[in-house]
Amino acid sequence: MDLKIKNATLVQEGRGAINFVLQFRDFDFIGYRDSKILDARGWPENFDGTIAEMSVKAPKFTLIGPYTINGNLLLLPIQGSGTSNVTLNNLVGRMKFRLKKVIKDGEVYASAEKLKLNINISRMYMEFENLFNGNPELEQYAKQFLNENWKLVFEDIKPSAMKTFGQIWQDILNHVLSRIPCLIQSSEEVLRSAGNGFPGLNLIPIDPLRVDKVDIRQNSESPVNINLFFRDIILNGLSQLKVYKMQGFVENPRKIEMRARLDKLVLNANYKARGRILLLPINGEGKCNLTFDNWDAGWRFTVNKVEKNNKEYVKVENSKLFFNTTRLHMDFENLFNGDRALSDNMNQFLNENWNVILTELKPALTDAISQILQNVISGPFSKIPYNELFNAPEVN
Asked: Distance (Å, rounded) from C-alpha 136 to C-alpha 372?
């Protein structure tokens, strides 16, 4: 379905070779459905009032409809009205705009304001019928000049065109944004509803998330020189992740980044520990609990497109997690073969020095969690074609 635009006016005035007022009425804007998002930046969790940017490309944009023109082309007066066709090939556009938060039916949407547009193209073709009231010689001369000198024409009218079509793009963008809730909020809703998993999407249950094992081995030079083995791990809280950044979901993805916060991440498991912590020996096995308060994590991963059954999917190949927490609470049962006094003293020591201990364990811990998340997300990525994840819904 083409987009119908009621009115667009280009006012080109100055000392350039082209000076005219060009008006389009009730014209079709063809090609916007084939637009692809190349990049999108500036969509934080609290986006209201922030500046966002978006790059798009399209193989072809065509404007077809009635026109009226009056002005000068070089030293020659140009005038006419009739049917027009303006086609822009291989358009790459950059939009910069202010975001506004909109609440509709209890859901959060975004709208764009004060959009500024800049575009580049590989070619522009222009066809204006009935120039000079149908004078064939003057009409042919004008058409030939406009198309042979399209770069000059484009650069001359670009400031006026960017202002006029920037408003059109803002209307199109808001048309789309008004039909899809905020991507970040949508991601959170998916997480909250995915506690029991989606077998049809190859998504395993994530709350609780069950993991067979995680092994942490520290070298002898570390202040926390410990071998720590977790088994039958249960992670609670992941469905409550609050996503506040998503970047890299572009047409040809390579690097993707996600940032999220969680009030509390809880790990319960069976453990076995052997080693030393700050010169103090530690050993034991039994049940343990690790609770991270205000867990703030970022996850970067690289992907490659793979083809399967004539559809493109993405495969996660490398991932890296980094996180911070305001507090780590630890409770290891049955330390020192069940000696209650030694066990209580060690747990107290661990919790009083949680920051030092976490700093030493974090590299191994982040590698383990990153691999767990990679396994989780690889399921849906292998099931859903990437264009269904990437493309915005159609505008009706």
From this structure: 71
The DSSP bridge pattern shows strands 209-217 and 255-277 to be: unpaired
The residue behind tokens 């495969």 is 315
Tens of pLDDT, residues 334-379 = 888 778 888 888 899 889 989 988 888 888 888 888 888 777 777 7
Task: Look up the pTM and report it.
Answer: 0.55
Q: How much is the pLDDT for 325?
A: 93
Q: 255-306 pLDDT, tens per residue?
A: 888 888 889 999 999 999 888 877 778 888 999 999 999 999 888 888 888 8
**Pair 380, 201: CB distance under 8 Å:** yes
Q: Is it true that the peptide bond before 380 is cis, omega within 30 degrees of 0?
A: no
Reduced to 3 states (helix: H, G, I; strand: E, B; else coil), residue 379 is helix
The phi, psi pair for 202, rounded to 5°, reads 60, 30
Phi, psi of 390 (to 5 degrees): -85, -45
Task: Provide the residue type at 259 as one letter.
Answer: R
The CATH number of 3-180 is: 3.15.10.30
Cβ neighbours of 305 (radius 10 Å): 12
Q: Name the burial class of residue 377, with classes exposed (0-12), middle (13-18) and buried (19+) by CB atoms within 10 angstroms of its CB.
A: buried
Q: What is the pLDDT of residues 10-25, one digit of tens each?
A: 887 766 667 888 888 8
Superfamily of domain 185-389: TULIP domain (3.15.10.30)
Give ranges for CATH 3.15.10.30 in the chain: 3-180, 185-389
Taking the C-alpha atoms of residue 241 and residue 195, their distance in angstroms, rounded to an integer, is 11
Percent composition of the chain: helix, strand, coil (DSSP 3-state, to 5): 30, 50, 20
Q: String of b and e for 103-137 (b: at least 16 CB within 10 Å)?
A: eeeeeebbebeebebebebeebebebeebbeeeee
Whole-number pLDDT of residue 87: 94
Strand partners, 362: none
Contact 117, 166 (CB under 8 A): yes
